[in-house]
## 1
Amino acid sequence: TGIKLTNTGEWPSKKYVNKKRKGWIKLHVTLNIDSGKMMAMKVTDNRTHDSQCATGLIERARKKAEAVGCKVKKVIADTGYNTHQIFRYSGKRGIKPVIKVRRAAGITGNRARDEVVREMRRGRRWWKEGNG
């Protein structure tokens, strides 16, 4: 979801020929699940895909966690972050990715993603409960 950039409603703009679509801004946030504190944040427009800013957010959260003596163990994200780049990044850093992949996802050689695919093939409910 996003936040509208203008205050005008959708109906008047459609009725009065203003077919130009208004933009959105998106707020990407990383949280520490245990404490509920925000670790990193980024605001983007509607042209930026969620996965484009994920590695930067995770890296900033990882550095902030290391500064206080903690470690990022798990990345929980929705399907908007289901890209090989994020799985590769998290696998190299020893971070467990908990990102839902599509049902027809196949084994591709990306070790971190393949592990999630195998777990989800056992059962989506089992995967969901096992990863919290």
## 2
Amino acid sequence: MILAMKNAFSNLIKKPYTHAYPEKSIIKPKNYRGLIEYNKEACIFCDKCEKACPPGAILFKHFTDNSKEYFYNPHLCIYCGDCVSACPKPQEALWQSEKKSMPAILNDMPNDNWYELEKEVAKSKEEVKAFKLANKKKKTL
């Protein structure tokens, strides 16, 4: 307890250890993992990145014409790189850039509608599954 009190009082006198961020840029470490970048033209829409993403920051909305739409929430992402590791075309379709995440205020608040989008995506997957099952039944008849 005495040691804790000693540390508390010494911290009152010491100069705080902080970075003067806006004035001095922060040096990124060599293995910095930044935002996920996506190239729609190179993507084969295999959904492996969506399945590998621990927090669910990547979503694919499915359509009955076998097309898909990609969604990424940088504010939900934990920058683990699992999606890039799972991608069959890393560095072409999906990669981690050295860009820093933009503040939520500047990104049209992607978290505002994310839960609705998750529901929409789940519904689209069920609709496509039902559509394919119905087509399969028609072909067997």
## 3
Amino acid sequence: MKDKTLYYLQANICKALAHPLRMEVVDRLKEGELSFGELCEAVGCGKSNLSQHLASMVDKGVLAQRKEGLNMYYRLSSDSVAAACDTVRAVLVGQLEKGRALLMEM
């Protein structure tokens, strides 16, 4: 029997990504580190809302942060985070293409 702890940990990472804003944050950080202000402007949401999402993502190990002076900077904790999101997107695109093909057959 497999150790169920691994499934629990995997689910926590999935939860950390399971919100459209969080997926957008990952997409924005693919190119590199951004400050809190830059992220806030890029995703166009309130500071309090973004702060809560970022804290959760840092807590789950999806993002890393560093402080420089008064600014907080965020980056992906691993390139694997971006790869996982790209994989999910590829699955979605495949589903959409299948749906479109079915509609075309009608």
